[in-house]
Please model this.
Amino acid sequence: MPRLGIRTILLVALKLLLFAGRPLAGVPIPWHPRWANPLPHGNNVFAIAHDPSRGRAVTVSERGLLHYSDDLVTWIPRETGLEAALRGALFTPSGRLVLVGEAGTVLYSDGIEQLDPVTPGQLLDGPTEDWLEGVAMSPALIVAVGDLGAIYLSPDGAIWRRQATPYADYLSGVAWGTAGFVAVGDAGAILSSPDGTNWTRGVVGSGDWLGVTARGGDYLAVGRAGAIASRSGGGAWVLESTGHTNDLWVGTLSGSTRLVGGTSELLLSEKGAPWVDQLGRATAPAPPGTYYASLPLTNYFLLAGRGGLLTEGRRGSETLPFAWAEIAPSIRPFLSEVAFQNGLFATIGQNGAILTSGDGVDWSLELVPRGVTNTTLLGIGGDSNLLVAVGTRGALLRSPNWVTNILTPVDTGAGTILTSLPASTYGTLWLDLDPRPTTNQLHGVASGRGLYVVTGDNGEVLTSTEGSLWTHRPSPTTNLLSGVTAWGSGFAACGQGGTLLTSLNGIVWRRGSLRSSAWLFRIRAHAGLLAMVGEAGTMLTSLDGETWTAHATGSLEFLTDVAWIGTLCVVVGKSGTVLGSEDYTNWTVLNPFTYRDLYGISASGNRLVMVGQEGVILRNSTPPCCDPVALLEFGQTLNLLDGTAENLFLLGGETDQRFVIDSCGDPASGAWVSGPYLEFLDSGGTITYLQSLPVGKIPTRQYYRTRLIP
Model:
């Protein structure tokens, strides 16, 4: 197959023109948060679908977010436009993706890479609040099951009707094999049907079944307390014993290999042999975690589960054991706060974790003193000279902005040499204070007026001018002070029981005039304004620290932090709460595509960073860069034997830019055809896109343009 260089293509084949688009003025500020940690994301993955004809896989998770991959390594996020949890997925033989989930959600897609990736299906019996937990298909029918014995049937994934069944309790999964459909549910219920229409109820065991899978005539059900049941062909179900009692959520059949996974559990059985623990193996064990979904291929398993965990198992042949590894190793500590100072984002959390980033995209785990690895860091702040981090057991660390020399590899053209270059220790060198000035839990950090202020449990207030010598200050409260900030008129601190303290100099503190019983969790200052957020959706603002205005946010969630980007105020909280407002009166619910608790938010330029439970680090570009996406290179491969071609695009842009490649035979006609949706997900600034052109579809002349999506 001859490969033509770009110059040959331009002269002989295409006469290519390129255009770049900008979004129209007046478009609302977009909200498309993306995961920076864990990678590729941190949502629970409930199902994996695979299209063997294209080698494409799709994972589904919370709040309407799914990911697809053509190599099982790089995963592209796609938003469905819904906030519903997606629980089941499959590909039909034609390549259609079918999705089911929360409150009767049914979606389908004939091109997940297109600008509008999914289309809502139709429930002929009307809407339902029943969750659909699993989906399976035979050559003739698609079946989805869920709450209250719900069974829905569809010929194509677009139109669904509810089927009457002899069961009214929860159904957790469904599978199809040569003996027909099998659905499993609570209290040992196993339903079977040869055609998806006529169902017979059976009972196997007494515990709840959580999942079922099938391959050929073999079926495998998994459930609570390590329960496993198997069935071959039209035979009876057989309960199996593993000696393990953790809940099992997923089972997989691949040839003579059986694999089950669940809560801190992964067991494998070869050719009917006893089940073997894969987490506790001495060599290449599987990463610990909770597994909900699996994809079996030849001598390969892809597993997914809680917190976005993606694990692969490989072996060279059937006679070798599987070697397990996490596809994108990530840490998942609780993260309590994030700050931006001196060109650096820094977040802190469980087990003394400190992560830093210059752009909010790429994060580095910093080395901390051994003495803080058994503590949870709860607060961070400072200025351009010093970062201060505090936490449980009175933990107090500082990172000074010292200049030192480090050996750095430098390419001279003739080779690489190590050269001593100046570098800052800011955010990378952390010094533990020993002895600690208190054993109280410390929460809040502020800097201003030449003073660093730390607050914590039992009304603790500590101050320092340089970070190594700290002084206790009298406090008029014994309540926990979880937040503190510096502002134009001094300092303000807040905490449990509606506590508000103010100080002109950080040394002498007095109670504020505010009367509240809610936990005021965090306080921030912005452009002369003080803002506090806390328990039960509390949001308060003040211009003088004395008179406070309460704002109705429309949320009853515990709000944990607030930040500003331009004129937009963004508040985060528990259960994935994100609210936005430009006037503190009209609040918009923003979807972070996760239900993880969010505990911190910070901003720099157009980049917002949010952190929280299980290592969550989310970023959002508000607004995204509007510079045109550039076509850096173009090449085409022609297959003269079968008349097919492949176009290769190398595109350049900025992180989080979303765009499509449109094509047209004649720009004067205006008949542009919308092409694939693409997105710059990392800080590299380039994307390589390969476009296949089928037989008879190779144009003699074609024009392409990139078009930004707001």
